[in-house]
Write a structure and sequence with these properties.
Blueprint lengths: L8 E12 L2 E13 L4 E5 L6 H8 L7 E6 L2 E2 L5 H11 E4 L13 H9 L13 H7 L5 H4 L8 H12 L6 E5 L7 H16 L3 E5 L3 H7 L1 E6 L2 E7 L2 E4 L11 H6 L4 E7 L5 E8 L1
Parallel strand pairs: 3-8, 3-9, 6-7, 7-8
Antiparallel strand pairs: 1-2, 1-4, 4-5, 9-10, 10-11, 12-13
The protein binds adenosine-5'-triphosphate.
């Protein structure tokens, strides 16, 4: 089996603004984030906080309004349309929300993989796995499945096929938007096992999710809040993140007690810890 090489993703002051008629929506307002090659990361956070926008930028489907985003060797803000197309075709696999959006309904599972590989240039073909091996990577190694069309598969199998199609070109980065929503417990575990297998083979995996268990399995969670990185979780421990401008998002349970506008006295103690003490309102 050919191991794919994980891709590094770096965001510096990343801003994205949807420009609508008459007004703008600032979806990302300065994301600073480093994802190492071969890492597995869950992007979590409240609805509307900017997770899907961040994923679309990493996929090269959108280009930054300001700031810097590098995906492997690609500088996404500066890349031409042709470069972004190359990046999407070879380096990044994307699983869109809803398995069927990623699949051609009239082709069998095996032919869906072969179709996804058909645009790979000749000099990169030797890096590709045979369709049956791509299916095996996500645990779909029964010949019944290879010959089935998407509608004939169970929901969990269909979602794993969507992961296989995204992995067909042996990309170094796999992006997935809500990959386990609408699945029952067993199907969800099968899909997560597929992500783990893909990640073990070397690919960087980034998934947007509302499911805390997905975060726990991937190992690192990055919480997006109001268009920025608000917090990080590593193996079950939560951390606030200091942004480049010094801003820190307070954890939601503390924010419930400390109303906006509260004056905080912040001091460093002799033992190196930091104390924040409410001292009235502004
Ligand atoms: N195509 C669009 N046009 C205009 N505004 C948009 C568009 N897509 C997203 N937004 C806005 O950008 C902000 C961030 O949205 P985004 O979908 O990235 O958040 P999210 O965290 O993925 O939300 P959810 O968890 O609900 O999918 C929101 O205010 C949203 O309304």
């Amino acid at each position: 089996m050919t191991d794919s090489k994980g891709i590094r993703v770096t965001c510096r002051g990343l801003v994205y603004i949807y420009r609508l008629e008459g007004y703008d929506v600032v979806a990302l307002s300065g994301v600073d984030l480093d994802i190492e090659p071969g890492e597995a990361v869950a992007l979590v956070g409240p609805s509307g906080s900017g997770k899907s926008t961040l994923l679309s930028l990493m996929a090269g489907l959108l280009q930054p309004s300001a700031g810097r985003l590098t995906v492997g060797e690609h500088d996404v803000a500066k890349a031409s349309d042709a470069e972004l197309q190359r990046m999407r075709g070879l380096d990044v696999g994307v699983v869109l929300q809803g398995a069927s959006r990623n699949l051609l309904p009239y082709l069998t599972a095996e032919k869906n993989i072969a179709f996804a590989q058909s645009d790979v240039p000749r000099h990169r073909r030797s890096e590709l796995l045979a369709p049956a091996d791509v299916l095996a990577l996500v645990g779909l190694d029964e010949s019944r499945i290879a010959r089935s069309k998407p509608a004939e598969l169970a929901p969990g199998e269909r979602q794993r096929l969507a992961v296989a199609v995204a992995m067909a070109t042996n990309p170094g980065l796999l992006l997935a938007d809500e990959p386990t929503s609408q699945l029952d417990h067993d199907a969800r575990d099968e899909v997560l096992a597929a992500f783990t297998a893909v990640n073990r083979a070397g690919t960087t995996v980034i998934a947007v999710t509302h499911d805390p268990d997905v975060g726990a399995i991937l190992g690192r969670t990055v919480t997006i809040r109001d268009g920025r990185v608000g917090a990080e979780g590593r193996h079950g421990q939560d951390f606030a993140v200091v942004a480049r401008d010094g801003a820190v998002h307070l954890p939601p349970d503390i924010l419930r007690e400390v109303v906006p506008g509260t004056l905080l006295r912040v001091e460093m103690l002799d033992d190196g810890s930091i104390r924040m003490e409410p001292a009235g309102t502004a």
